[in-house]
Amino acid sequence: MSKAVAIAHPNVALSKYWGKRPGAGNFPAVPSLSVTLTGLATRTRVVFDAALERDRVLLDGKAADAGTCVRVVELLDRVRKVARESRRAEVTSQNDFPTASGLASSASGFAALALAASSAVGLDWDRARVSDLARRGSASAARSVFGGFVELAAGAVDGSEEGVLAATPVAPADHLPLVVLVCVTADGPKAIGSTEGMRLTMARSPYAAAWLHEAPLLHERLRQALLARDFRGLGELAEASALAMHASAIAAGITYWVGATLDVLAAVRSLRAGGLAVFATIDAGPHVKVLVQPGDLSSVRAELERVGGIKRIIETRPGSDAQCETQVGRPE
């Protein structure tokens, strides 16, 4: 047997990725910039074993659904092809936060899988190549290979399935004092996965073209705000990006929000009207991530705890790269 265990963290996109380039390869249609979060983690073990007749995928102690299995096996096949590996693999992945609910579990999951699988067969890949591999399973996973603030460019219009696209670090975790309060507003997986939600948005939304035009502009302004350490500018642009993304999706009939999502947004606006620099962003799910500076944390958290629809608040900060925890190398 050859095995490795990797740990990766989810990320929250500040400028949103929503929509894919046409064709194969899983290339994003717009650029995005995210922050990798400590306090949430996926731990994934990959074991290549000659005794296995087929690949097995276990997620949070249960057999993964068919769609997830297909994506995992495709990633494993890429690793096997490069490593000239014939053995099947058992993949065991565990999240310490809700899975498939809009908290970027696919990002941390495929980042951990890409690192563990390539390490298990002894591929000495740099972070960029691991990131490109992770992107093929989940585009946002390319960003979770790196810590701190991370950018993923849009895919080339004429890119082929075998084109390379990795995320790139923009700033380290300590570049900007930031706390992200993850306000969990619902339990269980979301009804429409991100991939399907993107497909339907691009196919049906009358605002899809407007989103594809506006998203890169918001992204570049947000990137500049980050580099300038302009927290208020970054927060305003992150909130604008999230609302524009969801507006395009809602117009296609794709609604991820619940009542508590709106309640949290109202609380954030109320806090801001009271003079605090606090902003909200929402990925493809009902949960709200509240961006706040450390000095305002206690005031903001106290107010959010009064919002009845919030089930729990997870306090996170900019976090680190994905890491290989243990490895038993490929036998010669």
Your description of this structure?
The chain has 332 residues and is an alpha+beta fold. It folds into two domains: 2-173, Ribosomal Protein S5, domain 2 (2-Layer Sandwich); 179-318, GHMP kinase, C-terminal domain (Alpha-Beta Plaits). It is built from nine helices and 14 strands. Helix 1 runs parallel beside helix 2, helix 2 (105-120) crosses helix 3 (127-137) and helix 6 runs antiparallel to helix 7. It is globular and about 60 Å long.
Span between termini: 11 Å
Major sheet summary line = 8 strands, antiparallel
The helix content, as a percent range, equals: 25-40%
**General form:** globular
Key features of this structure:
2 domains; globular; Ribosomal Protein S5, domain 2; Alpha-Beta Plaits; alpha+beta; 332 residues; eight-stranded antiparallel β-sheet; 23% strand
Topology:
Blueprint: E1 2-8, E2 11-15, E3 32-38, E4 42-49, E5 56-59, E6 62-63, H1 66-83, E7 88-95, H2 105-120, H3 127-137, H4 141-144, E8 149-152, E9 168-171, E10 179-184, H5 194-204, H6 208-227, H7 231-250, H8 259-273, E11 278-281, E12 288-292, H9 297-304, E13 312-318, E14 323-328
Parallel strand pairs: 5-7
Antiparallel strand pairs: 1-4, 1-14, 2-3, 3-8, 3-13, 4-7, 5-6, 8-9, 10-12, 10-13, 11-12
What's this, in brief?
With 332 residues, the chain is of the alpha+beta class. It has two domains: 2-173, Ribosomal Protein S5, domain 2, CATH 3.30.230.10; 179-318, Alpha-Beta Plaits (2-Layer Sandwich). It has helices at 66-83, 105-120, 127-137, 141-144, 194-204, 208-227, 231-250, 259-273, 297-304, and strands spanning 2-8, 11-15, 32-38, 42-49, 56-59, 62-63, 88-95, 149-152, 168-171, 179-184, 278-281, 288-292, 312-318, 323-328.
